[in-house]
């Protein structure tokens, strides 16, 4: 493909991206009006799943999914990009755990709140409160996903999972479903490091790289659920979930464990960075 054709492709994707964002805003305006009447539209989860899937296609991301979302499970996923919630959300009805600051972000915070995002602020009491709320929502049949690494990586390893939120799975009848996410270029199965959203990179810079990408593929593997016993330790459970994801990605078990913490690292809009950091601050179990 010529350079000119690549530019036209990127601009076309950019226009589709903007059009789809506007479509989402208009849909959520209707949701907001209906919600003021005291009822949440029953069609909202299906529309959100459709929106995630169409956004992935607009950006030129081909998503290959293996497995399916299990009932009554907390989804725990490795974290590479701000694209992660979209490729996951396109696979089923689900909500995400996000840091409380996102609620105040222009447009994104409003949209996240309306689609059912659960927010968490710093502080140990917040962890206990949000754990109970997540348990209740999963028990009602909803699906929630977290990114227990607490930040993004380049996809060459999986950082240690912080264990505190794994207490959710210690409730009777609830489980943990590991989910492995891998981005690569075309037929090359090697993790595409260029697509990762890490360190202090600006979102618009990373978005432009996504728009210009010649053949971005995302592999999403919903792995078999883990059904723990009440007496199982959270640290052991978090380590087991991480190990299954690493194995599914074809990486060495220790890949990512020696990665130094990055206090200034920023991830996508719908990630659980704060929750993981709270876990580290409150109880490094």
Detailed description of the structure:
- The structure is a single chain.
- Helix content is 40%, strand content 14%.
- It has 285 residues and is an alpha/beta fold.
- The protein has one domain (60-282): Glycerol-3-phosphate (1)-acyltransferase, CATH 3.40.1130.
- The protein has a seven-stranded mixed sheet.
- β3 (95-99), α4 and β4 (118-120) form a beta-alpha-beta unit.
- The radius of gyration is 18 Å and the shape is globular.
- Residues 262-285 have low confidence and may be disordered.
Q: In terms of topology, how is this protein built?
A:
Blueprint: H1 3-36, H2 44-58, E1 61-66, E2 73-77, H3 84-89, E3 95-99, H4 108-114, E4 118-120, H5 124-139, E5 144-146, E6 175-185, H6 203-212, E7 216-222, H7 234-249, H8 273-282
Parallel strand pairs: 1-7, 2-5, 2-6, 3-4, 3-5
Antiparallel strand pairs: 6-7
Shape: globular
Strand content: 5-15%
**Low-pLDDT residue intervals, each spanning 5 or more residues:** 262-285
Can you tell me the CATH class? Answer: Alpha Beta
- CATH architecture descriptor text: 3-Layer(aba) Sandwich
CATH fold type: Glycerol-3-phosphate (1)-acyltransferase
Strand tally is 7
Q: What is the helical fraction, as a range of percent?
A: 40-55%
Structural class: alpha/beta
């Amino acid at each position: 493909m010529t350079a000119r054709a690549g530019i036209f492709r990127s601009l076309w994707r950019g226009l589709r991206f903007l059009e789809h964002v506007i479509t989402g805003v208009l849909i959520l305006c209707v949701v907001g009006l209906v919600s003021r009447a005291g009822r949440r539209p029953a069609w909202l989860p299906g529309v959100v799943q459709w929106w995630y899937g169409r956004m992935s296609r607009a950006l030129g991301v081909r998503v290959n999914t293996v497995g399916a979302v299990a009932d009554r499970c907390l989804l725990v996923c490795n974290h590479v990009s701000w694209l992660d919630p979209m490729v996951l959300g396109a696979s089923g009805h689900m909500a995400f755990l996000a840091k409380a600051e996102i609620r105040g972000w222009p447009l994104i915070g409003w949209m996240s709140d309306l689609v059912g995002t659960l927010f968490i602020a710093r502080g140990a009491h917040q962890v206990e409160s949000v754990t109970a709320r997540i348990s209740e929502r999963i028990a009602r049949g909803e699906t929630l996903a977290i990114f227990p690494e607490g930040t993004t990586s380049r996809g060459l390893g999986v950082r240690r999972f912080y264990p505190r939120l794994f207490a959710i799975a210690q409730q009777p009848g609830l489980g943990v479903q590991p989910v492995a996410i891998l981005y690569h270029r075309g037929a090359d199965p090697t993790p595409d490091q260029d697509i990762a959203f890490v360190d202090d990179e600006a979102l618009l810079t990373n978005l432009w790289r996504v728009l210009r990408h010649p053949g971005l593929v995302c592999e999403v593997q919903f792995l078999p659920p883990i059904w723990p016993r009440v007496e199982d330790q959270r640290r052991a459970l978090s380590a087991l979930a991480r190990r299954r994801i690493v194995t599914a990605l074809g990486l060495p078990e220790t890949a990512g464990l020696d990665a130094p913490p990055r206090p200034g690292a920023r991830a996508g809009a719908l990630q659980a960075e704060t929750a993981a950091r709270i876990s580290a601050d409150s109880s490094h179990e």
